[in-house]
Amino acid sequence: MRIGLYPGTFDPITMGHIDIIRRAAALVDRLVIGVAINRDKGPLFDLEERVAMIEAECVSLSEQTGIEIVVHPFENLLIDCARDVNATIIVRGLRAVADFEYEFQMVGMNRALDDRIETVFLMAEARHQAIASKLVKEIARLGGDVSKFVTAPVMRALVDRFDHK
């Protein structure tokens, strides 16, 4: 069984993330969405909220793809998380060259820690390449329309969080 791990903070989950999840599901028999706790980033949504949003989005994706998609919070090293869920593939989404430079370093370090786990890069579709959770949060905080970047339930959560009516 090929188990893939798609890690991230997902604060919040965006259409870009959903695109990568859908495409990653075609590569594996089971896909684990690793939600990084990452207290240092000071996420807008707490872990339980992020997990709930991802689980809600993944129900239909799992039905569409026929692949089991599960959500797994983690706070340890990515490579240890991959071992914990028996993943042999780590899936990373790329938007731009800057993403690749960082990810290239991460792959080297992860390979040094465990060379049995491969990393696969998926480029975001062109229409999703500019989407970043950080920018989505900023637009929402300032009362802008984020409906092109997130699903309706996530948009409602952002509006509620920033108390825009």
In short:
Helix content is 45%, strand content 19%.
- What's the CATH class, please? Alpha Beta
**What's the number of extended β-strand segments?**
5
CATH architecture term: 3-Layer(aba) Sandwich
Would you give the CATH topology?
Answer: Rossmann fold
Q: Given the C-alpha coordinates, what overall shape results?
A: globular
What gyration radius follows from the Cα positions, in whole Å? 15 Å
Largest pleated sheet? 5 strands, parallel
Q: Structural class of the secondary structure composition? A: alpha/beta
Percentage beta strand: 15-25%
CATH superfamily, please? HUPs
* Helix and strand element order: EHEHEHEHEHH
Instruction: Please state the average pLDDT score.
Output: 92
Distance between the termini: 47 Å
- Give the helix level as a range of percent: 40-55%
Number of helices: 6
In the sheet with the most strands, the strands line up as: 3-2-1-4-5
| Number of domains as seen in the coordinates | 1
The poorly predicted ranges are none
